[in-house]
Amino acid sequence: MKTAIYQLETLTCPSCIKKIEGTLNKQEGVHKAKVLFHSSKVKTEFDETKTDVRKLHTMIEKLGYPVLSKKESES
Predict the structure, then answer these.
(1) 8 Å CB contact between 43 and 2
(2) What's the whole-model pTM score?
């Protein structure tokens, strides 16, 4: 399992959390997606055989939240 943390531009409302977490947590291979509102980060834990960092990055951006940077690690 891998972990990726995406640094986003500033999040402005709690509904952003529901939108991002809801979308990512429905994706095949994602075990957990958590938005850290005050630091504008999204932490994902996922099965790299079913999805990847780039696909999750693209999904976040399609929701309207630009990703400024990302960091990966093995869980």
Answers:
(1) no
(2) 0.91
